[in-house]
Amino acid sequence: MLALTVALISAGKYFYDKAEVAAHEARTRSISYIESYGVDPVLEAREALYTFWAGQPELIKIFGNQALSERQYKTMLYTTLFHKIRDLRSGHPRRIFL
Q1: Are 98 and 80 contacting, i.e. CB atoms less than 8 angstroms apart?
Q2: Any idea of the CA torsion for 62, 68, 71, 77, to the nearest 10 degrees?
Q3: For the chain, how are helix, strand and coil distributed in percent, rounded to 5?
C-alpha cells in the first residue's frame, strides 16, 4: 500500500515537473520573441515598411475605403513596388500616386 502511494505521488510529481519545464520554456521563448522585436534587423525592416507605407497615402486611402480582391491587391502592390524600385535605381525617388 505504501509503495502504491509513493508511486502515485512520484508520478504526479513527474508530470508536475514536466509541466513546469514546458511553462518555463514557453516563457523563455516568449521573452526572446519580445526582445528580438527591437533588435536591429527587425527594427530596420519595420522602419522600411513604415517608410514605404508613409509615402503611399493615396494607396492607403484606397485600401481603407474599398475592398480589393487578392488579385487587385497583388497587382497594385506589385506596380507600386516596381515603380518605387525603378525610381530609386534611377536616382529620382518620387511619390507614387495610383
Answers
A1: yes
A2: 20
A3: 85, 0, 15
Residue range 11-36, pLDDT digits in tens = 899 999 999 999 999 999 998 888 87
- Whether this prediction's pTM lies above 0.70 is answered by no
Which single residue is written with the C-alpha cell 508511486?
A: 7
Of the candidates 24, 78, 29, 80, the one whose C-alpha atom is nearest the C-alpha of residue 52 is 80
Rounded CA separation 73/79 (Å):
10
DSSP 5-37: HHHHHHHHHHHHHHHHHHHHHHHHHHHHHHHHH
Dig out the grid coordinates for 67 from the structure.
475592398
| CA geometry: angle 73, 64, 46, nearest 5 deg | 70
